[in-house]
Amino acid sequence: MATIEHWIGGAHTGGVSTRSAPVFQPATGRQQHTVLLGEPADVDAAVRAATTAFAEWGQASLSQRTKVLFAFRELVNAHSREIAEIVSDEHGKVLSDAAGEVQRGLEVIEFACGIPQLLKGGYSDQASAGVDVFSFREPLGVVAGITPFNFPAMVPMWMHPIAIACGNTFVLKPSERDPSSAGFVARLWQRAGLPDGVFNVVHGDKAAVDAILDHPGIAAVSFVGSTPIARYIHQRATAAGKRVQALGGAKNHAVILPDADLDFAAEHLVASAFGSAGERCMAISAAVLVGDSDRLVDLVAARAAEVKVGPGRDPASEMGPVITAAAKERIENLITVGERQGATVAADGRGLKIPGYEDGFFVGPTVIDRVTPAMDVYTEEIFGPVLSVVRSADVDQAISMINSNPYGNGTAVFTNSGEAARRFQRGVHVGMIGVNVPIPVPMAYYSFGGWKDSLFGQSHIYGPDGVDFCTRAKVVTQRWPATSAFSEASLHFPTAR
Ligand code: NAD
Question: Which residues cross the membrane (predicted)?
Answer without folding.
Answer: none
